[in-house]
Every structure is written in structure tokens, then in C-alpha cells.
Amino acid sequence: MTVPTQRTDEQVAAMSLRGLVKRFDAKLAVSGVSLDVPAGSFYGLLGPNGAGKTTTLSMAVGLLRPDEGRAFLLGYDVWADPAAAKARLGVLPDGVRLFDRLTGPELLAYHGLLRGMDAATVDQRARELLDVLELGVGNRTLVVDYSAGMKKKIGLACALLHGPRLLVLDEPFEAVDPVSAALIRDILQRFVAGGGTVVFSSHVMEVVERLCDHVAILSDGVLRRHGTLAEVRGDRSLEEVFVQVVGGRVATGSELAWL
Amino acid sequence: MAVTAAPGIGPFVRLKLRLIANGLRGRPARVAMFVVGVLFSGFFAVAGYAIFAIPGVADDPHAAGILLPLGGTVIVLGWLFLPLVFFGVDESLDPARFALLPLRRRTLVRGMFAAALAGLPAVATLVAMAGMVQTAAGLGGPFAALGQLAGIVCGLLLCVAVSRSVTSAFATALRSRRSRDLAAIALALLAAALGPLQLAVLAGAERADWDTVATVADVIGWTPLGSPYTIGLEIAAGRAWAAPLKLLIALAAIGGLLWWWSATLENAMLGTAAEGGRRATGTDRTPVDLLLVRRLPRSRFGALVSREVRYWWRETRRRASLLTFSMVALFLPVSLTIGSGSPGSMVIFVGALAALALANQFGFDGSAYATNITAGVPGRVEINSRAAAHAIYTIPLLVVVAVLVGALSASPGRIPGTFGLLIAAYGVGLGLVLPVSVRAAYAFPASTNPFAMSSGGGPAKGLLTFGLLFGAVLISLPLQIVALALGPVWLWIGLPVGIAYGVAAFLIGSGIAADLADKRAPELLAAVSPQR
Questions:
Q1: What sequence ranges are listed for the domain ABC transporter (chain A) (predicted)?
Q2: Distance, CA of A194 to CA of A90 (rounded, Å)
């Protein structure tokens, strides 16, 4: 496993969470997650469905107010100083949280201007991203009519457009075809090599094992393991560790005989 | 393994009640809205009962012969159109959710029909129509009452069948997103046209002689719309032979509607097919130029306004509301003139109504609103850009309305003053609606039906809209009174005074809304995100 060289001189963690708690009605979705994501790392947040990955990341980027705890992005408190924290943050939210009645180019232009970039830079970068991601510079199809993979790609382009130092991606590889996935992996690796930090959630072990230098395993809203990939994995495969930590059932016994 | 006997209607009704109950659990606001809905339904039921019972108490068969078929027809039409316009179709039992269950169509139709009957609107309608039974009893004794009872039960079934089958057929008959959008717009226009039409009919009724109306009522009594409501009257009038015939007409209509529903249900269960990504290419314009509407600044504000402008046209719900409002705004003055009323009397109503489209403006965005939060858009910019985009569509329309009113009342000099009143009421409406749009936002379901609201609490949301409209009209009323009192002077000062009044109200409201949006952005996002 090659850890990309860090080119940042800032010692402050890219993302640090302190005792985040979130309750939905009676259910405790996230209970006291504390986590440090070192600057320049490729960080994978693992967990089964419903573990609280999306909830945790939403609280970390300022989309969901935590009941308790604090979140810092690049040293800025997300909830006390949101403008500073969000300025150098790029987010790919879960599901389709895009204004999908715009075309791809329009959506990119919207994101760029919203971030206060000047129009010429927006145009130049948007064209480049559309070209590289094979979304078509002159494509007038509305994003709502895009395929799932194209939606992920345009979402990623929106998150990258303003040149953030920290990328927070929720399930970036879900429903993406292998070719697009390889392209996204390449872009993300270049981003980290350039000194950026990537935090992403997934429940696909292979992707995490291949990309990440740090991982955290979340289940039932509690952080079970975190650290470098080598520390967490030990001498076993990540999948074995994951299954053991999460404690789910992986084989059937005498039931289901009628299958 | 073996599929057991087909379930009856029990599970469907229980499912519906459970959905209502679970929707209320642990949400005091929803419970409060539900209680308001119950009160409103109760009021409707009692008032309806009283109205329909009057001819019986007064012992007036002639009045009953007019009131019952026409009143019944209004109820049926209400069941058809009110859900579309105001309350949203109840999608809690969406047929698509049953698609994979091994249920026969007959079972499904029966179950969903029964589930639609289990709800406040159905109960309230039945109670209101029970007044007809009393009338029939008063006029023709127990047999007539019995006939009328059968009639109103049929009438209720007819209402529900009409409501379910038509909405189901329309919302699902079309496959692609584009044609679905178009159909939705067409339906909205149709629904919007109904209001003006009804006003015109009422205006005509004022002048028509009652014998003609009685004849019309008589004819309607033989159509499916009115036949179930006149069964008791026929018995009371000694035409017992007509009762089974009318019952047959009503039952045939119900059967036909259910057949139609079940025919379209299969389409409904298939859901939507994905549209092939057509690649229309061939443009040299840069992304920023593509986004920005002409002459808007190349800045954050320009981007926000442009996106909103495009959304008012591209998003079905928004376009439907925009077109509906246009219809009402243009036809109301016309139909009031036909009805020998003064077109000036509805000016502040139209102005206030314009602002209502923004009552759940964040709900239109849904979870996409996360984009603006992540980008850190200040509340002031957020609110003002949205109001500006809406005004781009609304203000030209208000100018047209003002001109129309001036033309209809044959006094062009009134145009500026009328426009002043319209702007004042629009500003007041925005001032009220903007804070509410932040504070009381709710999620639209991720449904294919553009008229659908989220399940449960639908009537209460409609009530909130009514309240806003009422409040805006109330606050604008002083200006209207001043306008009437001043007479000719208003023609001169109306425009500046109206604009000042409207702008002041808008500034107060948008300021409050901006503060709220700054403080509550994450809560707002949670409120408008479908499910969680």
C-alpha cells in the first residue's frame, strides 16, 4: 500500500469530529463519534446499511445539525464558522441532491457562481470537467434524465469545480459502471496526490482496500475501529475484520431448508 | 409455497389506518394539523347536513328537486377536482407499491377502494349527504328515506370511484417524464378552468329563472352525477318506478369507473420507464451563458435567480402552479364582469394569490437544497433571489390583470391604481408567505403524480394555504378601503402608494425569512427531504 506523499504543510486535521450524537425520534442514529482525518489522507468510512455513515457525514459537512458534539473542517468549526469551513469543502451528497432540472453545463455553472468564482474560470473548468468525465460539453439533456453513473459523475464534477482541499463523498461508487468507477478513482487519486483530502463512505470492501490509506468502521452509530488501513486490517483481509466487528450473520444454518 | 386465498378488504383498510396513525406518532405538529383537519371536516359535515336538510324541514319538494341533484353534482366534482387543486391526492396506498405482491387486480381494486373510503373526507361527505336522507324522510316518509339512504351510499362510492380512477388514469397513463409533465400541466389548466367556469355558471344562475334551473336539475338527476341523490325524492313524489332506474344508473357508473380504474391500474403498477438519454448537442455557448437568463449579473445572485427562473418552467409542480394562477388571475375579472359584479373587487385577492405559489418553495427543491447550504448561500440572498425569480413571472402577469380590469370596467384611468393594489397585495402576500415557507416547509413525495402531497395531513396543509391567503387579503384590505374612500384621488396616488405598501411588507417578511433561513438551514433541509 503506497501512502501518497503529503504536500501540505498544515498540521491541522482535514476533518475532525468530536462526540457527534444524532437522535431521530427514539432511535439513536449516531452516538458519540469522534474521528480525526489527517490532511492529505484517503479516508474510507465503512459500515453496513443503516450504520449512520450518511448521518455522520451530513453532520460533518453542515447539512444536519448534531444533537451534541462538534465538527471541524480544516480547523474551522462547521457550526460556529460555517462560511470559512465550507469555502474549501466539496461535497457529493447521498442520493440525488442536485438541482436536476438543469443540464450538466448549467448545473456546473450554477455551482461555480454560487461559490463566488468568476465566470471565465467557471466556464474553463466546467468545460474541462465535462470533457474529462465524458458528459459532453454541449449536452442539453437535463440531469434528471441522466443515468445513475452520469449523475454521480456530474455530482463529483460539481464538488470539484471550485478546487476544494477536502472532498466528502457519500457512496461515490454506488451504481457506477466499472469504466466510470476507474475514471473516478483516477481523479480522486490525483486529487489526493495533489495534497487534497478525500473522505468517502462505502460498503464495498474491495474499493476501500484498494484506495484508502485510512479506514474507519461504523456500525449502529458507533465507531468500532479506526486508523490506518494496516492497523485496522492487521494480517487479515478487511472483509474478515469488517464482518467480525459488525457481528452480522454470514452463513445459514439448518433453517431455510425449503430453499 | 402455496398462495393462500386472496385477502379481503380488511388488510388494506387496516394498512391505511395504520399509515395515518404512524404518520402522527411522535409528531405534535402533525397531530395538531390532523386535529385542525378533523375540525374542518366536522364543520363541512355539519354545514352540509344542515343545507341538505333544509328543503325537508321547509317541506318544499321543489327546492329539494333543485338542491339535491345540483348539490350532489357539486360534491362529485369536488371529489374530482379539489384533491388536484388543493389537498393533493393521497398517495399513501400507491398501486406501484403492490406491484410485486401476488394480488389479483380485482382484489387490489377492491382493497384500495375500501382504503380510500376509510378517511376523513369520505366520512365527512357521508355525514353531509345524510342531510338528504332527512329531506327525503320529511317529504316522503320512511320508504323515501330508505331509498335516499341507498342513494347517498351510492353517491359516496361514486365520489371515491371518480376521484381514484381519474387521478390514477391521468397520473400514470403516460410513460416518459416529458409527456408526464405535459399531461400534468394540461390537467392543472383543466382544474383551473373549472373555477372561472363555475363562477360564470353561478352568475348565469342569478339571472336565470328558476324553472330553467329546475329543468337542468331534473336532467342532471338522470345522469350519473345526480341520479343517486334523487332516488328518495322520486319515491316521495310517487314515481317509485324511477328509483331502481336511477340506482341502476349510479351503480353502472360506479362499475364503469372501477373497471376503468382497474384497467389503468396495471399501468400504474408498472411505474415509469426510464427515458433514453437523448443527446441534443450543438451549442457553442459557454456553461455560464447557458445557465444565466439574459441581462442577469454573472454573480451568485444571478445564478440563483436564473436557476429559479428555469425551475419555474422546467419543474412540473411549479409550472402547474404558475399556469393555474395565470388562469385564475385572467379569468376571475372576466367572470366577475359577466356576473355583473365589479372586477375591481377581486384585485387584492389575485395579488395575494400570486404569492401563494411560494408557500412551500423549498419543498419544490427537496433535498437538492443541500447544494445551497454546502455553498454557504446567505439567507438574505437565498430569499431575495427566489422572490425575484417569481416576480419575473408574476409582475408582467399582474400588469396584464390590471389592464384587463381597466378594460372590462371601461375606464383606462383605473389601470395604474389597480396595478398599485395588485402590487401591494402581492408584496403583503410575499411578506407573509416567505417566513412561512422557511418555517413550515414540508416534503413533497418522490412521486410521479405532480399533484401528490405527502401522505397524511394533506387537508391541514391546504388549510395553512387558506390561512395565508386570508391573512394577506386582510392586511391588504385597508388599502382597498382607502382606494374606495378616496375615489378619484386614488387614480393618481394609487400606484406609488401601492408599491410602497407592497415593498414595505415584502422587506419586513423577507427580512424575517432570511434570518430564519440562516438559523434553520439544516432543519429546513431535513423538513423538505423526502423520507429520511
A1: 15-245
A2: 15
